[in-house]
């Protein structure tokens, strides 16, 4: 079982300090988000996430976790403040530039959103096909990514023939097929039993070990304690805590 262990070599690469960061790949400066006349969903958020880091984003339902993730891949735009992704201020990005940004960001949601009448292979390669990637390249990259998540032998099956854990692996493969620098996961284990939850989280750890920056939104204190990663806690749209492992899980229980 993978436990996202930091080796001496990785620690040297990451440097010293409380969170031992490399250069930031995601930054927010005084970011707020409102929808119409409703109370703000996010209020004055300041954060930075380093290249190659694995971060949990937690908080109760309605705290703003999903909205924060959407600001990163421009499913929503901030009402105030600046959001930088790989050094680019996305507020200045034209709509025509959004697809190019998203090619560097993989997204995994709790609801799988797989195409039920298309094969696993077709589901994984769909995004590549849409942007005009040659068919033989789509097939090669899709099969390679399915091998990474342990499903190369089920490429021909339809998603309804797979277990819940296998379907989530397909979703992760679809998010990784473009070799994104960043992977965002919104409650990726919310519908899975404990054994499958560990399976999916271990897979995300393996992906992170290959250099991908990962942000996982979750309300599961067990995951926070088990995987010992930096944890950002939201409450009523405000970033209220930045902790790690057991301390972060304790704050979740108390909250």
Strand order of the largest sheet: 6-7-8-3-9-10
Order of helices and strands: HEEEHEEHEHHHEHEHEEH
Please state the overall shape, judged from the principal axes of the Cα atoms: globular
Note the total helix count.
Answer: 9
Q: Structural class given helices, strands, pairing?
A: alpha/beta
Distance between the termini: 30 Å
| Cα-atom radius of gyration | 18 Å
Strand runs, count: 10
Largest sheet: number of strands, sense, barrel closure: 6 strands, mixed
Q: What percent of the residues sit in helical stretches (DSSP H or I)?
A: 25-40%
Sheet-strand content, in percent, reads: 15-25%
Mean pLDDT: 87
Low-confidence stretches: 5-20
Question: Could you walk me through the main structural features you see in this protein, from its secondary elements to its overall organization?
Answer:
By secondary structure, the protein is an alpha/beta fold. It is built from 9 helices and 10 strands. α4 crosses α5, α4 packs parallel to α6 and α8 packs antiparallel against α9. The protein is globular. About 6% of the residues have low confidence.
Write the layout of secondary structure elements.
Layout: H1 8-14, E1 24-33, E2 42-50, E3 54-58, H2 65-72, E4 80-85, E5 88-89, H3 98-102, E6 105-109, H4 120-130, H5 135-148, H6 164-176, E7 182-186, H7 194-209, E8 213-217, H8 221-227, E9 230-235, E10 238-244, H9 245-254
Parallel strand pairs: 3-8, 3-9, 6-7, 7-8
Antiparallel strand pairs: 1-2, 1-4, 4-5, 9-10
Helix pairs in contact: 4-5, 4-6, 5-6, 6-7, 8-9
């Amino acid at each position: 079982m993978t436990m996202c262990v930091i080796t001496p070599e990785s620690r040297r690469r990451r440097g010293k300090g409380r969170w031992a960061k490399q250069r930031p790949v995601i930054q927010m400066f005084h970011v707020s988000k409102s929808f119409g006349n409703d109370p703000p969903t996010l209020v004055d958020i300041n954060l930075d996430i380093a290249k190659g880091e694995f971060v949990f984003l937690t908080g109760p339902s309605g705290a703003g976790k999903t909205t924060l993730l959407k600001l990163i891949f421009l499913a929503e735009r901030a009402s105030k403040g600046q959001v930088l992704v790989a050094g680019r201020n996305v507020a200045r990005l034209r709509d025509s530039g959004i697809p190019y940004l998203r090619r560097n960001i993989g997204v995994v949601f709790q609801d799988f959103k797989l195409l039920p009448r298309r094969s696993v292979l077709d589901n994984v390669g769909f995004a590549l096909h849409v942007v005009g990637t040659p068919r033989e390249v789509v097939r090669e990259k899709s099969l390679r990514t399915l091998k990474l998540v342990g499903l190369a032998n089920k490429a021909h099956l339809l998603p309804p023939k797979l277990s819940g854990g296998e379907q989530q692996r397909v979703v992760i493969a679809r998010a990784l097929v473009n070799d994104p620098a960043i992977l965002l996961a919104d409650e990726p284990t919310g519908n899975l039993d404990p054994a499958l939850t560990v399976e999916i989280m271990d897979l995300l750890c393996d992906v992170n070990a290959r250099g991908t920056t990962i942000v996982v939104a979750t309300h599961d204190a067990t995951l926070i304690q088990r995987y010992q990663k930096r944890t950002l806690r939201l409450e009523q749209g405000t970033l209220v805590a930045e902790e790690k492992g057991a301390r972060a899980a304790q704050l979740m229980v108390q909250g």
